[in-house]
Amino acid sequence: MGAYILRRLLLIIPTLLGIMIINFTLVQFVPGGPVEQVIAQIQGQGDVFEGFAGGGQDAGNLQADDFTGGAGGSSKYAGAQGLPPEFIAQLEKEFGFDKPPLERFITMLGNYMTLDFGESYFRKISVTDLVLEKMPVSITLGLWSTLIAYLVSIPLGIQKAVRDGSPFDTWTSGAIIVAYAIPGFLFAILLLVLFAGGSYWKIFPLRGLTSDNFDDLTAIGKILDYLWHIALPVAASTIAAFATLTLLTKNSFLDEIKKHYVITARAKGLSESRVLYGHVFRNAMLIVIAGFPAVFIGVFFGGSLIIETIFSLDGLGRLGFEAAVARDYPVIFGTLFIFGLIGLVVGILSDMMYVLVDPRIDFEKREG
Question: Which tens digit of pLDDT belongs to each residue from 117-128?
């Protein structure tokens, strides 16, 4: 197992490299880069753009009027006509675009090897600090949603398999299908309308992870306040995963229950609980564990943008979206690198969980 994990860890390097190459190449052809974003703001706000920090330099007072030379001619940047060429050149230098793309990419990878993800173009803060600032929201949604989905779905799926075809199985299947058919964002809005002061009850808060007086609360008060705030967002982000996991668990148990070793165990006089949880559980849970990375990453990253927007949570989903809109390349590539690394590591952890559940699995022999 050790050699297999080492090989998987080494494969992270070329995988991340491929991800970064593809996305860096695509970005070169996307219009509306950071230079054009600055130009657009200058044109719309009186030739002044404040709060700009690019290339590690402070250019907060950069103005087109500081450069002489008259109106510029044609430019490769949309909206740059009429601006001095020296001003455009200075913008390119501040953003690092005065260097060839290959040189910029190699420099970026070299910095990433030392975990230096650069500084946001427009926020005057390092990408690492920015991610750490937004991480608690996404961790809250991802971990709680995944944990609740598994804690509810696995027992429910087992009961549906044991009582297959019963009225309990029928009405729970109907409820699961309805839950799966409801989009997460629509369910989130429904929760707001019903329980956050929309049109009915004001039971839960409308936004944020904590109250304004959070620091003044006792330890127990802080825990309750935190749980009070995350109840609706977590419920909205869990609904789809809950439905999928329940049906996956049920079908997996049904397949195992029909096998000969289960019939043999029952013939020996073992109790039903011993058969289910002592023999069937390990084999049936393999496919459920295999889906853990997809569930966790999907909740952690995929659905976080909509949920964070609806519940006014400032997390990684909104950070990535705003960075893409503003063409804040250090934030885009930094978060892409971090997210990709987390996804690959979670995949390795999933394989390790396979072995914990069923020690008979040996990935090294399978590869050999």
Answer: 888 887 778 888
